[in-house]
Design goal:
Radius of gyration: 17 Å
Distance between the termini: 21 Å
Bound molecules: 2-phosphoglycolic acid
CATH architecture: Alpha-Beta Barrel
Largest sheet: 8 strands, parallel, barrel
Order of helices and strands: EHEHEHEHHEHHEHHEHEHH
Strand order of the largest sheet: 1-2-3-4-5-6-7-8
Number of strands: 8
């Protein structure tokens, strides 16, 4: 099954109004790629609405959402609010949320369901720690996260991001063979759990993706794109990563 590539940037807790210029530059750089791949940026919530106004073909996403509907939850944002601001995606279960806010697989599953109900494509993050990889448990850990963090009624719009915790922001990455083994396992598990919908879900790799390693990562079978942190903050870097995708190269 051919899946449309998705290259998504996660700005995390970075970005001021002035940085919207990077988004404008990105939207110009990817202007003619809209028919071959999807590009998204997940800015901090303070920039969401303004980002939607300058994003052009770049889709905008939230970085997290509350699992419930609008209500008395000070400081939180509902998925419906993100959609109202113009978002199309919402990251859930990022390892920094799991670490900083104690999000469990059950929380992630509820957030993903809330995002989907609001019309957002959830980007559900999974990934093992270094200790789990050293113990030979990486695939088992990720399979368990998948089984528990995706809602039963999930459809093919759901996106999975495989992000080894030890590769995020460290400059370290698994080898292409390790990425390939994990993505094959994730795909098999998604098909086992969700059938045709699972075959259609995009599976991204995330963790220290940069212009210098993007082509090698995109060449791995079953990698449908990337979730990029630090290297998505500058349009030139992110555009170079996008240009390294084979789908962009055939343009
Ligand atoms: P990084 O972050 O690209 O800076 O390693 C990736 C992520 O956390 O999504």
């Amino acid at each position: 099954m051919s899946r449309r590539p998705l290259i998504a940037g996660n700005w995390k807790m970075f970005g001021r109004q002035a940085d919207l210029g990077e988004l404008e530059a990105l939207s110009t750089a990817v202007a003619d790629l809209g028919d071959v791949l999807d590009v998204a940026i997940c800015p901090p919530a303070t920039l969401l609405a303004a980002a939607c106004r300058v994003a052009g073909p770049v889709r905008i996403g939230g970085q997290d959402c509350h699992p419930g509907a609008d209500g008395p939850h000070t400081g939180d944002l509902s998925a419906a609010m993100l959609a109202d601001a113009g978002a199309r995606y919402c990251i859930v279960g990022h390892s920094e949320r799991r670490r900083d806010h104690g999000d469990t697989d059950a929380t992630v599953r509820a957030k993903a369901a809330a995002a989907a109900a609001a019309g957002l494509a959830p980007i559900i993050c999974v990934g093992e720690t270094l200790e789990e990889r050293k113990d030979g448990r990486a695939i088992a850990v990720v399979e368990s996260q998948l089984a528990q963090s995706i809602a039963e009624m999930a459809d093919a719009a759901t996106v999975i991001a495989y992000e080894p915790v030890w590769a995020i922001g460290t400059g370290l990455t698994p080898t292409p063979a390790e990425i390939g083994a994990m993505h094959a396992a994730v795909r098999a598990r998604l098909v086992g759990l969700f059938g045709a919908a699972g075959a259609g879900m995009r599976v991204l790799y995330g963790g220290s993706v940069k212009p210098a390693n993007a082509a090698e990562i995109f060449a791995v079978a079953d990698v449908d794109g990337a979730l990029v942190g630090a290297a998505s903050l500058k349009a030139a870097d992110f555009a170079a990563i996008i240009a390294a995708h084979p789908a962009a190269a055939v343009r």
